[in-house]
Amino acid sequence: MIDTESPAVVRPFPALPDGLPRPGRCLVMGILNVTPDSFSDGGRYGDADRAVRHGLRMAEEGADLVDVGGESTRPGAEPVPLGAELARAVPVVRALAGAGVPVSIDTMHAEVAHAAVEAGACLVNDVSGGLADPAMAATVAAAGVPYVVTHWRAPSREMARHAAYGDVVGEVTAELLDRVEALTAAGLDPGRIVLDPGLGFAKRAGHDWQLLAHLHTLRSAGFPVLVGASRKRFIGAALSDCSDGAPAPGERDAATAAVSALAAAAGAVCVRVHDVRSSLHAVCMAAAWTGAGSLSPPP
Ligand code: PMM
Q1: DSSP label at 42?
Q2: For residues 262 and 283, what is the distance between their CA atoms, to the nearest angstrom?
Q3: Whose CA is nearest to atom 1 of ligand 1?
Q4: What distance in Å separates the CA atoms of residue 200 and residue 229, rounded to the nearest whole number?
Q5: Which one, 30, 80, 135, 289, has the greatest CB density within 10 A?
Q6: Range list of β-strands (E), 46-111
């Protein structure tokens, strides 16, 4: 049963799956989209050398993981042929992993996940939670790496039509737990699963904010939780409520860092962000804050 107690009773740092860095605070995953069309950085790192340089820069800035993706998942995006996704992502994974950077692979395709793990990736990040490719569960189970299961209802080009909920927090949590059941039945070790509410995937801004404000409900399902809020539309929407219009995605890093701090304080084990430095500082503040809160106040 899902425990919906208040966030105050949820302990801040649940167990991380083996194979991930353990800095003793919320992890920061730097985003590296090797795509021509991702919504905020599409085209910037489409060239492999530039992508590798950016990945190395994020690692120097303190990224605990660099998340390499070769297919855009922005709303409305068209799928890319498997060969193109492999050719974009795998050489970048290999180069970064070879340089000692912990790398995750952002893919919905088992073949890409398999090739990326062979090339050195230590985590598979699947925004479809295993729904897009029936071979994914067995592939990740055989690879023995941690797996991010994201809440997803439909491919990018159709997802807007599926953004209807009565109780978004309850439905997303229940649908994720259905995925966990199916994935573990297919052989995946539950100890390797990380859940992700899938902000912006078949969700409107209000849904995203509800999910963040009730992160403790998802956490109470007993799995570590990753939050991918960086520069997304719901952040722009909240900013436009308190300033003149929504700033462009590239102008949303300070607001993203604020969300990173709140997510870390609410117990997220990882935030996935474009600007590593600001979110690293933010999660360090959350660690100091929650750490001090667990001590007795001075007399
Ligand atoms: N969002 C995007 C891509 N990959 N992975 C996870 N686990 N969670 C997310 O929310 C997520 C993701 C889309 O954002 P981008 O185009 O900025 O990468």
Answers
A1: T
A2: 8
A3: 228
A4: 8
A5: 30
A6: 65-69, 103-106
**pLDDT of residue 79 exceeding 90:** no
- What proportions of the chain, in percent to the nearest 5, are helix, strand and coil? 45, 10, 45
What is the length of the chain? 299
Ligand 1 nearest atom to the CA of residue 74, by list position: 16
DSSP letter string, 230-277: TT-HHHHHHHHHHTTSPPPGGG-HHHHHHHHHHHHHTT-SEEEES-HH
Q: Whose alpha carbon is nearest atom 5 of ligand 1?
A: 127
* Tens of pLDDT, residues 142-183: 999 999 999 999 988 889 899 999 999 999 999 999 999 999
C-alpha 106 to ligand 1 mean position (Å): 8
Q: Distance between CA 191 and CA 94 in Å, rounded?
A: 26
Q: Compute the distance from residue 229 Cα to the ligand 1 centre, in Å.
A: 8
pTM to 2 decimal places: 0.93
For ligand 1, atom 10, name the residue with the nearest CA. 228
CA atoms within 13 Å, Cβ hemisphere of 177:
14
